[in-house]
Amino acid sequence: MRVALLALAAAGMAAAQVQVPSIITKQMREGRKVIDGAIEALGGEKFLALRNKVEAGRMFSFYHRRLSGLANARIYTRYLRAPEKPDPEKLYLEERQSFGKKKEKWAVLFNEKGGFEITYRGVRPLDDETVKRYRDRRRWDIIYILLRRRNEEGIVFERMGREVVDNYPMIRVDITDSRAQVVTAYFHESSLLPARIVYRWRDKHRIPHEDIVIYDKYRDVGGGVKLPFVLQRLRDGERAFSMFAKKVEINQPLGEELFQLPADAKMLEPVD
User: Fold this and answer.
1) Of the candidates 234, 239, 243, which has an alpha carbon nearest to the alpha carbon of residue 196?
2) Which CATH number fits domain 22-259: 2.40.70.10, 2.50.20.10, 1.10.3210.10, 3.40.50.1980?
3) E-only strand ranges, the chain
4) What distance in Å separates the CA atoms of residue 153 and residue 85, rounded to the nearest whole number?
5) Helix (H) or strand (E) run with residue 17 in it
6) Cβ(173)–Cβ(156) under 8 Å?
7) Closest-CA residue to 115 (of 134, 131, 138)
8) Gap between the Cα atoms of 232 and 131, Å rounded
9) pLDDT per residue over 68-116, tens digit each?
10) Going by C-beta distance under 8 Å and a sequence separation of 6 or more, which residues neighbour residue 133?
């Protein structure tokens, strides 16, 4: 009997995680309107038809407010086809980060098999914590949410009101998914273009952190689609990463080999 009750309780908890709200509040309706308006501001149906993007520019990393790394980078992002109701556990995206001024000297690849560093020495798998952090960041990227998560089962958008952020009037929308994870998105009140997203997470030592991702310098990249050319991430109030793109292209004829490991590459031992 006790086993049966435990099983029922577990089933009830699982159902609660993915349960669609039975009552649609005014905040939810207004939140969805903001999301729809942001999609229109980014290009509407042409934005939703985005298959891939290629960003070329300079990437900077920081540690304790000091520059810890910089590189000329070309980021290839491919958005995979998703069903009408996307799986909350799946990431419909693959990415290759290519480093080198004129030609690729080394790269980092993220696909459905995991994360890998590719150099002339061979291919080295990235550790599980790095891959998890990458996947979580991409799942909460506002561009990805608008493209692939907006119709996800159980996801809720709630307009929380108007706030002034960095002297700009913003509309705040809280986004809650089926796993009860909550992030806060800010949209420019005048244009509804996404401005920033804030989310909290814990590292492998259970230490809490807060990440803020700032999207800036939107430009038309073709056909009325607008994308940010500047991306910055703050961690616990300190700048951790910046990407300044000189060029952004969309819907390019990218080869399949970009998102696959070299067939003849030597597999190296992962770093502990």
Assistant:
1) 234
2) 2.50.20.10
3) 52-63, 66-79, 93-99, 106-111, 114-119, 122-125, 156-165, 168-176, 182-188, 194-202, 208-220, 226-235, 238-250
4) 6
5) helix 2-18
6) no
7) 131
8) 20
9) 889 999 999 999 999 999 999 999 999 999 999 889 999 999 999 999 9
10) none
257: left (phi over 0), alpha (psi -120 to 50) or beta: alpha
pLDDT tens column, 140-156: 999 999 999 999 999 99
User: Which string of b and e fits 162-171 if b means at least 16 CB within 10 Å?
Assistant: eeeeeeeebb
Statement: residue 11 has pLDDT above 50: no
- Smallest CA-to-CA distance from 262 within 53, 96, 82 is with 96
d(CA 159, CA 52): 29
pLDDT interval class at 249 (50, 70, 90): very high
Alpha carbons 113 and 124: distance in angstroms, whole number: 13
Token pair 């298959």: residue: 51
